[in-house]
């Protein structure tokens, strides 16, 4: 900083009492002088009933920039906070906004009644077999109605107040701080005792309120594991939950994330090819092996019933984040009796014509923090898709999973994406196998591989070939191909969206 002619600002508890003319103070003063630093705090920063010391300091390289400095009287800690106001030009951080639907005046009954008046347009879907046209009509009816009952609005993100700090506790905190200031003025033993009583009372009240609040929350959601984990995460907050403020323009940031998330796969593939070339490793051709099955053992999609679609929808959680259309599963469930027939017809048309609607291929990507939120590589993408598309995906998953299980087409060693299998069962299997080998005096080796950007770098051609190899019919493979291709995504930071960019690899996650 000195060689670059940058400003130096040192703040902290140096555990050196600047009110005493001792050896430690002289050493710190000499050190500061050598670096051309000035100590600007002059009043005690730690005050007890028997002593007062100045051990929390602020060292600055340019005292001329100091507009104001001092000590703040508060009861947060036995160390009083120190502050300094500098004459600097700092960029103003833009406020963070988010666009979502306002359900303040939403009434499910009124919404459904209004939707019934447009049932003619919904029923017209049943005579159409063009999936994209069906979806456009479906979305237009649903959107135009929902926009009246739950319009899209832009909200400024604000930090939520602590739910268990009541007005009574806030008044006690004010009284506590008032008595602290009284003691600092009088230095009287009686005022110190009164302040400590208020301080201890506030701590006791806050702990009791937090305990009661958590107990009531756990009791209310004891049968919902997802809600229980949410409560636990609220008790132990993480940095990811903090509202992130970006120094750059949100539009620029969103474009940066879009470019990173869509280019990282190509970069990973290029790196793999380069490593193989440098190490003289021949890349295998996974498309060389072809497996054929009798026609009666091939997987084909079957038409789904309204009952099955209804069962799938009602089993899906209502609190999942909506996709680009901002229509959540809660709304779909509210109007399900009205839209069930057209929705089922649309899904069946998709399966029978091997066509996945284009509007369902657009994903909204939210960066999830893993470090410094402004560095794109420290974030992983979370793709938000339209909730109705997930219903179609669930239908496909159920039918294809049943086929794989019936014909035993999946490896017995696969644990991911299998019912009754998990990382726990895999760990038990691996551990038991290793222990058995050790008991039999056999040499044991374990190789662990971590695929970089595994979901993002899936090759569509390889995936489709594997689907054929495990029994998917040409018509089914065509549906999967249409599902994978023609996709695009955009990044969203708050309410600011980037432009869309096509996706050539990977699957939504």
UniProtKB/TrEMBL annotation:
InterPro entries, A to Z: DNA/RNA_pol_sf (IPR043502), Endo/exonu/phosph_ase_sf (IPR036691), Endo/exonuclease/phosphatase (IPR005135), RT_dom (IPR000477)
Coiled coil: none
Domain of life: Eukaryota
A single GO molecular function term of this UniProt record: catalytic activity
Classification via PANTHER family: ENDO_EXONUCLEASE_PHOSPHATASE DOMAIN-CONTAINING PROTEIN, REVERSE TRANSCRIPTASE DOMAIN-CONTAINING PROTEIN
Protein name, UniProt field: Uncharacterized protein
Biological source species: Paramuricea clavata
């Amino acid at each position: 900083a000195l060689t670059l002619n940058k400003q130096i600002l040192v703040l902290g508890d140096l555990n050196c009492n600047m009110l005493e003319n001792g050896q430690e103070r002289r050493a710190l003063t000499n050190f500061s002088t050598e670096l051309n630093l000035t100590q600007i705090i002059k009043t005690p920063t730690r005050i007890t009933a028997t002593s007062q010391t100045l051990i929390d300091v602020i060292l600055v390289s340019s005292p001329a920039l100091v507009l104001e400095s001092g000590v703040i009287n508060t009861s947060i800690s036995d160390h009083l906070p120190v502050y300094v106001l500098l004459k600097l030009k700092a960029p103003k951080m833009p406020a963070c906004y988010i666009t979502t639907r306002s359900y303040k005046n939403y009434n499910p009954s009124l919404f459904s009644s209004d939707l019934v008046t447009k049932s003619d347009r919904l029923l017209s879907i049943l005579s159409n077999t063009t999936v994209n046209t069906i979806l456009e009509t479906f979305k237009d009816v649903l959107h135009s109605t929902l926009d009246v009952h739950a319009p899209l609005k832009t909200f400024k993100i604000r930090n939520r107040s602590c739910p268990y700090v009541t007005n009574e506790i806030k008044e006690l905190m004010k009284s506590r701080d008032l008595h602290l200031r009284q003691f600092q003025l009088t230095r009287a033993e009686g005022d110190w005792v009164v302040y400590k009583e208020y301080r201890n009372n506030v701590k006791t009240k806050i702990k009791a309120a937090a305990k009661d609040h958590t107990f009531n929350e756990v009791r209310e959601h004891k049968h919902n594991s997802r809600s229980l984990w949410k409560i636990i995460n609220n008790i132990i907050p993480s940095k990811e939950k903090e509202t992130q403020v970006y120094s750059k323009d949100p539009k620029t940031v969103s474009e940066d994330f879009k470019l990173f998330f869509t280019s990282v796969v190509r970069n990973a593939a290029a790196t793999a090819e380069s490593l193989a070339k440098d190490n003289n490793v021949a890349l295998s051709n996974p498309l060389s092996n072809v497996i054929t099955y009798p026609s009666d053992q091939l997987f084909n999609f079957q038409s789904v019933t309204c009952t099955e679609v209804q069962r799938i929808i009602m089993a899906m959680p209502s609190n999942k984040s909506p996709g680009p259309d901002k229509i959540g599963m809660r709304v779909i469930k509210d109007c399900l009796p009205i839209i069930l027939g057209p929705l089922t017809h649309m899904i069946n048309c998709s399966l029978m014509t091997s066509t996945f609607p284009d509007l369902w291929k657009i994903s909204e990507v939210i960066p999830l923090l893993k470090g410094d939120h402004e560095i794109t590589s420290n974030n992983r993408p979370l793709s938000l898709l339209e909730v109705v598309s997930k219903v179609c995906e669930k239908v496909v998953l159920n039918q294809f999973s049943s086929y794989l299980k019936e014909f035993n087409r999946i490896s017995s060693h696969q644990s991911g994406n299998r019912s009754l299998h998990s990382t726990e069962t895999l760990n038990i299997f691996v551990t038991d196998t290793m222990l058995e080998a050790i008991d039999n005096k056999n040499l044991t080796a374990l190789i662990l591989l971590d695929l970089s950007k595994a979901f993002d770098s899936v090759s569509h051609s390889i995936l489709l070939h594997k689907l054929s190899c495990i029994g998917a019919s040409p018509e089914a493979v065509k549906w999967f191909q249409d599902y994978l291709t023609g996709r695009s995504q955009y990044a969203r930071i708050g309410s600011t969206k980037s432009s869309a960019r096509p996706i050539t690899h990977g699957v939504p996650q």
